[in-house]
Amino acid sequence: MALAAARRLLLHAGSRLGRREAVDGARRFANKRVLVETEGPAGVAVMKLRNPPVNSLSLECLTEFTISLEKLENDKSIRGVILTSECPGIFSAGLDLLEMYGRNPAHYAEYWKNVQELWLRLYTSNMILVSAINGASPAGGCLLALCCDYRVMADNPKYTIGLNESLLGIVAPFWFKDMYVNTIGHREAERALQLGTLFSPAEALKVGVVDEVVPEDQVHSKARSVMTKWLAIPDHSRQLTKNMMRKATADSLIKQREADIQNFTSFISKDSIQKSLHMYLEKLKQKKG
Ligand SMILES: CC/C=C/C=C/CC(=O)SCCNC(=O)CCNC(=O)[C@H](O)C(C)(C)COP(=O)(O)OP(=O)(O)OC[C@H]1O[C@@H](n2cnc3c(N)ncnc32)[C@H](O)[C@@H]1OP(=O)(O)O
Fold it and tell me: The complex's ipTM?
């Protein structure tokens, strides 16, 4: 209920959290955790995640992200979105571990429903989505990038990308797996999912997790030039083709959303899984000290 109210509030431009501004002819609207600017090639928005320190996809961040996408989908002048990050060195650390640890089943269910919703909206978007991956992109961060039509990654060996869930002692849901298989093929996905591989940019390019690797200072210009190329294709034929390629994968989740929420909730609530997450969070802390 509270989230639905927040959603209504945010959808109103000019509300306290969601504001629309005119800056040098460019339009922008900003929530606390997502900034959207419509500069650059006509019909293109740049969406920047800004949920420091690591752009983890908290419930609030997911909600703001989904609402921003919804706004762009409803704006007929927007044909493409470049998805990137405002947090230095991090594209997104993926799902927020603190939303999946030490909470109650109702919270897990609510959280997962919002993860599904963002994924469905991104994966089935009619707009052209290009990701400018300017930092680390594990698990849910990789998922965001995989939803895009084209992925450009910064050539920095410190940045890695991949579905690393098995390293956390958790299992990537079937729709994460399906999208991985669609992108890199069954054999590579099978190996990478079991090992929880986090690929360097060069490896990610080789295996097909990303489409292009460029020097870090060229990620945005490259994403823009890729977008220009995709904008030259008539929308109706590109959209119908995208739908043809992605519909079966999206439908398999749509048909069993409730069951998938139940699965997630009972899996994540298990003592053994909570223990694994605890250990992983401790490891992240120790890495610092
Ligand atoms: C059925 C089950 C389905 C579930 C599917 C889940 C998919 C997921 O997305 S699970 C999340 C997986 N994510 C990760 O494994 C990433 C973990 N994080 C990292 O590897 C690193 O933090 C980093 C992203 C590479 C960034 O490194 P660095 O710049 O050195 O920052 P840190 O000091 O490590 O982190 C700062 C701060 O953020 C906290 N944090 C990191 N990641 C997450 C996260 N995903 N969720 C919540 N919080 C996270 C980290 O613990 C630090 O917190 P402090 O309180 O400052 O210690």
Answer: 0.99
